[in-house]
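Internal ticket #5521
Category: modeling
Description: The requester needs a full-assembly model to guide mutagenesis choices. All entity lines are attached below as received. Residue total reported by intake: 1311.
Assigned to: D.W.
Attached entities:
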Amino acid sequence: MSRRLEGGGALASAVLLFELLLGLLLLTGCWNRRELNELAIAAAMGMDKAADGYRISIQIINPGEIAAKKGGGMMSPVVTYAASGHTVMDALRKMSTEMPREIYLAHLRILVIGESLARQGIGKVLDVLSRYHEVRTDFHIVAARDRTAEEVLSSLTALEKIPANRLYTSLDLSEKIWATTGKTNLDTLISAIGSEGQGAVMTGIEIVGDPENGRTVEQLKRTTPSPLLRFSGLGVMRQDKLEGWLGERESKGLGYTRGNLAGAPISFPCPRGGYIGVELIRMKSDVRGEVKAGKPVGSVRIRAEGNLSEVECETDVLKLGSISELEKETENEIRTSVLEAVRRVQREYRSDIFGFGEALHRAKPAAWKKWKRDWPRMFAGLEVKVNVDVKIRRIGTVGDPVVQKLEE
Amino acid sequence: MTTPASAPVSVRQFTILVFLYTVGTTILVIPAGLAAVAKQDAWIASLLGLLFNLAAVFFYLRFSRSFPDMTLAQYYERVYGRWLGKLFTLSFVFFSFIGAATVLFYLGNFINTQVMPKTPIQAISILFILIVAMGLRLGLEAIAKAGEILFPWIVLLFFILIACLLPQVEVHKLLPMFEADVSSLLKGAVSVTGTSALPFIVFLMFYPAFVANRKKAGRGFVAGTIAGGLFIAAITFLSVAVLGADISERQMYPSFSLAKRINIGNFFARVEILIAAIWFITVYFKILFYLYGCVAGLAQLLGIGDYRALVLPMGMILVVYSQVVYPNVVYAAEFDRTVWIPYILTYGLVIPIATWAVGRLRHRMRGKPTATSGDVGE
Amino acid sequence: MKRGVLKLLLKAGKRIRRSSHPTSEPSVAPRAQETGLDRRFEQISTALGASSDLVLKEIRLGGAAGPRVGAAYLDGLSDTRQLFQSLHGNDRPLEEWLNASPEAVLEELRRTVLAVGDIKVIDGIENAVPAVLAGETALFADGCAQALTLGTSGGEKRGVEEPNTQSVIRGPREGFTELLRTNTALVRRKIRDARLRIDGRQIGRVTKTDVAVMYLKGFASEAVVAEVHDRLDRIDTDAILESGYIEEFIQDHAFSPFPTIYNTERPDTVAAGLLEGRVAIFVNGTPFVLLVPALFTQYFQAPEDYYQRADFSSLLRILRLTSFFVALLAPSLYIAVTTFHQELLPTPLLIGLAGQREGVPFPAFIEALMMEITFEILREAGVRMPKAIGQSVSIVGTLVIGQAAVEAGLVSPAMVIVVSITAISNFVVPAFNMAISLRILRFLFMGVAASFGLFGVVVGLIGLVLHLCSLKSFGVSYMAPYAPLIRADQKDSLLRLPVWALRTRPRSIPNSNPVRQAPKGGNPS
């Protein structure tokens, strides 16, 4: 049993460690240590084209104002800064001349890209973001429709103290229950840009009302704040360039092919006026690429489940036949909106945002290799089949519609 | 005393050390390289790499049977005679030293790139080397036990990683399967073996001699290699299936980006630094054993009985050398792609095979192995 | 020349020695005078420097004319009432006493008269002095060369009370006292087995403290027992005032914040330890008994674990380990995350924390250091203060730290929460000496966290694990049964299985009797 053998060594190393620590503590001031109150936490970032490069705007959170339990409301909870530069980093650094704190990008919730920059191509700015270690990939990327990103950022909106966070959560929410928007983050955008067989989309954001009004805190105090920021439609990208916008119905159609549409309401007119609404609660879709007779064929198979949500006409809901009829109607509605979206994209934008190319790649790698180079052209003439299967399970908490009783 | 084994390292501990050593550096670096050559089939390449690893380990087991009570350096001297043997040992010392330096560079580079860009890499290296030196000075027994304590934590973190990422696996990112041709799969597999299995050569500085129950330890060697290989394969699989082949390829450290993806209901998110702990711990053992090979070989070379005195000086030289071993990251990547494989093949395979062959030849010529040379264990 | 000087010096030395002789020689000289009672009293009085607590009492047996006997004892150390009752109450006729020789008187006293246990016959005054110092009474008969020492040790002592350091909700309430004999008896009462061995010895040249080594023969490993004796033999010091002295002398690693010798105030813990093959070291004068070998995991086990239900105890042990990590790492993790890895925080939390920190003038590390040190000061003050004042100090402390500092903007509320959680978690660790090591290490971890963030913390943890793995307690791996992993011992380490499942003794502690009980067959379930 060897005792006290290591004793001396341990003491020596303990002393060494202690001295080292002491030295380090004195040295580390200029290293990576940043106190929380030295950070300018950026919640949103906007990118626009400028005459000589980029104009970057950043919405900084004022934590003191947000966290204050009492006595808040004197200052705006967020501050927006903007600067231009040849490169993104250049602009960011310039901004720090008017800011006492260091811009911290890890908590970025949303990146708004001005339409003109988006149309010009965003590949270069995305490189900066993916290279910079502080930036994560979990924020949403949206395009400012007809506006500059700076204008969007400076339009405060109510409900949440941090507008960017509000945009983030409402994007999450609207994707779930409205479905004309799509979450796009850095990774999906970058991999779509790099891929021949899968195009990207970006959700558009627009300002309703006068952007000037949004700059003041007073807006927060009104019940109907103006202006409002609103998500509207999807922007279709070809490689890294924004090509154009999809309408509401087409956006839905794209959403159906991606299967991320649970909860989206579908409505269609009754034979004698009024509407019937169906709420989809579950959806699975499958995009495939096949080769038929030496030609690529795309197909979408969608299976959905839904509930009856509103009935404005006098159908006998409780009859077996009427449900299957409803199912047919819903299937039709979905099929047409998908087909419309496909047609429009094929005709106008020629960017395979549905991913038929990738599907073909997965299914028939050899054929894909042959067509890869020429895919945008092939896609424009691609034959697309849509197969929809809808099941309506429940009809809500009542049976026959209220209207039926009225008629009697 | 009633302790079951007098050897400093038990079979279980040895298995764990093999596992940790296999995983160190490999998990952070390899997925990107594999995705670059084999795209979505990267995980197949890593499984193939596991087979290669096993082949290498079987050879090491075979090889080490020739010197059950000796270290590799001692065996070099026995096979090649005193002076030639010392030359081989010297080259081995250099090899382990450079190995340690490259791993240390990787560690500092990773932290500088991903976590703390403004902290000087020297400070990071010094802190790490201090703790490595502490381990080496405490000796193999403490190191082996520490591995045993840390291992469950690594496994736990690993399962957290897997469990949190499984919902994000997208099978279509793996398709089409078997698109990569055989040569690129092989290329990937060799790179796996080059970073994970061939460095086992430094284990031969203590493997048969200081490990209890040689027969079972051999099985432990294999088991540890398989576990480590599967671990690497799992991480590679997740990289491809969650991030996609193109992003895995673009990332400098895909497994770290992978961990960044963890998000369970917006509250268990942003935990990548915890996952990085896996890497810090496994890299710790990797550097530690490289440096062990270096100082133990050097002690043998200089005829010093105890390597402990050499640990701190060599550690300090190592810190300095790790700053200059690669001038920049691009060079490091280039070195890994072009030079490392032939380099490690030379030290990890060619020289041992040659030694093994020469040893067997001499054994057959002289009859008894004990009669070969008397000037060994001084 | 040189040699001459040397000779002179030697001669001088001889002269001095010779001159010292005459003074000591007369004391050995006439034998008759030597054995006289007065002379005895004088001798013993001189030996103790005429201490005022020395009581010399003379009694005549069988009445005023009887033979003289004398008792010498230290007041307060000895309980002599029985002794004098039996001396005065003897009803032997005077003639019998007068006819007996002094030796016969002494023999008669020893055999029949004295109602005192543990009587020894000794020769000479030099053996009487240590006995008197130990609280015994020396009994001299006038003219007799021999004397008796009577085991009358007693006097004021604390009773058996509930231990302060390891209190339980369910379980025995008795704790050790300052008296070695009481303590060994408390354990013997729990283990009525002939194999329970107590080896006594004295350590300390001046204090001559009684130390007893207790173990179960056939249970404890012979090697460990021998090692304990060997290490105790090597202690050569003036004084042993508490078992802490012994602990520092015999522990394996002098420079480690972790205790490698367990101490307890509870007889049931010692009994359980002995039954697991451990060796206990009792030291007179302290209620803290040492138990070796000690394992890391032992410090997270409370005696109560075995008295409460198994599932509950297992969960408690997990809770304790968790609090160990919280107490060790909470401030350093807070520092690392808020100053290096802000990206790890969820956005709302980050904003909340940043809002709290607005206006706090110090870096998080200094803030944490200040708060931790303040807390340590308060705690130390609370321990040393009289109990009544301690209460008010803690109130002031909570007010000062908890509210005034926050409201003054010196610290952020989050930091107060972190420090309080750390402090509370620290108290969950059942063993005080382990809790101390946590308090030390916490500051180290705060240091590495402040300079290297979580990387520093991980490196620190690797170092900590290495250090723990290098520790040994009497040749036993400190981290056993985790490293080396002993599967059979997992039944009672982090988890505690039901008592009937604890069939074998822990293998982590070397023992020579592995099986504890019959398999569960006989148990109703």
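Resolution: model delivered.
Comment from assignee: The radius of gyration of chain B is 21 Å.
Ticket closed.
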